[in-house]
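User: I'm preparing a small set of examples for a lab meeting where we compare how different chains pack in three dimensions. I only have the primary sequence for this one, and I'd like the structure in token form so I can line it up with the others. Please keep the answer compact; I'll paste it straight into my notes.
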Amino acid sequence: MDFAELVLARRSVRSFANMPIAPDKLDALLAAVARTPTAGNLQAFHVYVVHDERCREDLAAASHQQMFVADAPVVLVFCASPERSAPRYADRGRELYSVQDATIACTYAMLSATDLGLSSVWIGAFDDDAVAEAVDAPDSLKPVALLPIGFAAEAPALTDRRSVEEFTTPI
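Assistant: Understood. Below is the structure token output for the 171-residue chain.
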């Protein structure tokens, strides 16, 4: 599908079918993440690929009891790696660029999932410490987003969006 179709096809799915993701699909998705543009090409992010059921349950609990997180066969946990950016960009790299790198990586994963016939939903509401503990992340990584991925067990409708004129300012 072309990019415009991909953007329109993407939906936030919170109900997943009880079907595993083929390893080649997950490999393709992660290959897309590897091509994520990052500040200074420092790739200041890390991704935990969570298959383990108990860990997915812990992530769901850490996400303020959004239990559908545990129903996805895979949950990707995107973490910023501030110390990868800091040597080149100091505080701005530590506080902003590493977070941007992780969010761009999550966006690539979300769009790649759609392209591969999978579904996902971006989760930003969670307890940082509980997520880090669930995946045994070192203190040097900061959880930024969770992305449960699987086959949809629902078909959400296209949602309304603001018009381009509402969110842009010509200068």
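A couple of notes for your slides: The two ends are 34 Å apart (CA to CA). Residues 31 and 102 are 15 Å apart (CA to CA).

User: Perfect, thanks.
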